[in-house]
């Protein structure tokens, strides 16, 4: 079978799809991987055919705009960035033909139109539960508080005033060109009638009765670039030189994380803890770090986090799942997107807590770290969750479910 795999987003979006693609390739399937040129070297190095959707400078322009991290401005900003490449995604799917299957995330509008117009099957793959609205168990989103009925009302208002206006004008104009009727309520439409696969476990977020019919669920993919290689020598020396550090990262696409790291330097100094700072954008890291803090551009989390005392991050689903795997407390600084919902689910599981970006500073970070590091209940909850992920079989299970239950291959 030929799969056109086309996730649009940052490394947190691309890595799970790459892991699933490699699993499918190992089973004899053909893969065409279509995403931004920023990821070309990575995809080609893993032996997959690559087609660029957008240029490197498009990616950089998207992540350098602070609107990416605004709860109200992020979605319109992302859609403005993606509009020019969605037609290319449609063309790639069309060229692959009706014998192919497209695997996309919530931004796979080109693939969904190719399915509707040309009969080329598309499967939506969700990495996080927040993109599936439920009136029964609403996800936690910024600005949506109160009882369930009120959350549903506010969400509907947000769809009408923010989400649909960012998508429907250009999408429905395109649909008219194709002879297709207009659509609305985009967050419901982006679930493909060709199948929806959720790559997160039921103990994190069970399937809700008002989710799309036919939703199937597997487990966290837990794929990291570089997991087969040892950690950098300098990082290993630092880890060996003292007690387990706290690992800090604001996310691979976040270039506005200097206040995050400044608060981390201050808080770790106050509580006498060592730290590892991870970011591919070193200009964010304060100058003259103390010897108790080590900076690294990248380290595979599944290799680093088992050596850590705690994990402080932005709340992306990939980082959150790696924290679960390592069995360590997590403290999240949610900014936008799925991060508030992930933080709330981590709080409910008892494995950590969230401090919203507006309240994130050295004082609140210190208090939060002391709370999660000193709690025997948090430690026990972390061990219990880690035991559920010991098999690390999320990718094989996802491939099995995709092929057997969704596609019936």
From TrEMBL:
<dbReference type="GO" id="GO:0033072">
    <property type="term" value="P:vancomycin biosynthetic process"/>
</dbReference>
<feature type="domain" description="Glycosyltransferase family 28 N-terminal">
    <location>
        <begin position="4"/>
        <end position="98"/>
    </location>
</feature>
<dbReference type="Pfam" id="PF06722">
    <property type="entry name" value="EryCIII-like_C"/>
</dbReference>
<dbReference type="Pfam" id="PF03033">
    <property type="entry name" value="Glyco_transf_28"/>
</dbReference>
<dbReference type="InterPro" id="IPR002213">
    <property type="entry name" value="UDP_glucos_trans"/>
</dbReference>
<dbReference type="GO" id="GO:0005975">
    <property type="term" value="P:carbohydrate metabolic process"/>
</dbReference>
<dbReference type="InterPro" id="IPR004276">
    <property type="entry name" value="GlycoTrans_28_N"/>
</dbReference>
<feature type="domain" description="Erythromycin biosynthesis protein CIII-like C-terminal">
    <location>
        <begin position="286"/>
        <end position="381"/>
    </location>
</feature>
<keyword id="KW-0808">Transferase</keyword>
<keyword id="KW-0328">Glycosyltransferase</keyword>
<dbReference type="InterPro" id="IPR050426">
    <property type="entry name" value="Glycosyltransferase_28"/>
</dbReference>
<dbReference type="GO" id="GO:0008194">
    <property type="term" value="F:UDP-glycosyltransferase activity"/>
</dbReference>
<dbReference type="GO" id="GO:0016758">
    <property type="term" value="F:hexosyltransferase activity"/>
</dbReference>
<dbReference type="InterPro" id="IPR010610">
    <property type="entry name" value="EryCIII-like_C"/>
</dbReference>
<protein>
    <submittedName>
        <fullName>MurG-like transferase</fullName>
        <ecNumber>2.4.1.302</ecNumber>
    </submittedName>
</protein>
């Amino acid at each position: 079978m030929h799969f056109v795999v086309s996730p649009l987003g940052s490394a947190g979006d691309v890595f799970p799809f790459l892991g699933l693609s490699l699993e499918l390739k190992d089973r004899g399937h053909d893969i065409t991987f279509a995403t931004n040129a920023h990821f070309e070297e990575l995809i080609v190095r893993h032996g997959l055919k690559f087609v660029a959707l957008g240029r490197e400078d498009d990616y950089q322009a998207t992540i350098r705009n602070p609107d990416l991290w605004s709860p109200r401005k992020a979605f319109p900003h992302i859609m403005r960035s993606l509009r020019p490449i969605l037609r290319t995604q449609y063309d790639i799917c069309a060229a692959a033909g009706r014998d192919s299957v497209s695997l996309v995330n919530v931004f796979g509008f080109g693939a969904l139109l190719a399915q509707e117009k040309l009969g080329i099957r598309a499967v939506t793959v969700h990495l996080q539960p927040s993109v599936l609205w439920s009136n029964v168990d609403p996800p936690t989103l910024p600005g949506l508080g109160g009882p369930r009925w009120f959350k549903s009302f506010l969400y509907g208002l947000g769809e009408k005033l923010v989400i649909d206006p960012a998508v429907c004008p250009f999408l429905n104009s395109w649909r008219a060109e194709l002879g297709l009727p207009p659509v609305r309520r985009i967050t419901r439409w982006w679930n493909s009638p060709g199948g929806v696969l959720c790559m997160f476990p039921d103990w994190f977020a069970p399937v809700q009765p008002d989710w799309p019919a036919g939703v199937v669920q597997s487990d966290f993919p837990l794929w990291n670039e570089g997991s087969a290689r040892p950690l950098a020598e300098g990082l290993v020396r630092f880890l060996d030189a003292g007690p387990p550090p706290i690992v800090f990262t604001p996310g691979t696409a976040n270039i506005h994380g200097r206040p995050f790291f400044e608060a981390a330097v201050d808080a770790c100094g106050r509580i006498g803890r060592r730290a590892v700072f991870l970011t591919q954008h070193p200009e964010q890291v304060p100058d003259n770090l103390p010897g108790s803090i080590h900076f690294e551009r990248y380290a595979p989390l599944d290799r680093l986090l088992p050596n850590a005392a705690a994990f402080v991050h932005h709340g992306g689903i990939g980082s959150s799942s790696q924290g679960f795997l390592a069995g360590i407390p997590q403290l999240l600084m949610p900014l936008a997107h799925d991060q508030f919902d992930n933080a709330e689910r981590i709080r409910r599981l008892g494995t950590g807590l969230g401090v919203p970006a507006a309240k994130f500073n050295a004082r609140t970070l210190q208090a939060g770290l002391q709370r999660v590091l000193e709690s025997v209940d948090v430690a026990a909850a972390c061990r219990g969750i880690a035991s559920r992920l010991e098999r690390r079989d999320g990718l094989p299970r996802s491939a099995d479910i995709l092929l057997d239950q969704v596609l019936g291959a």
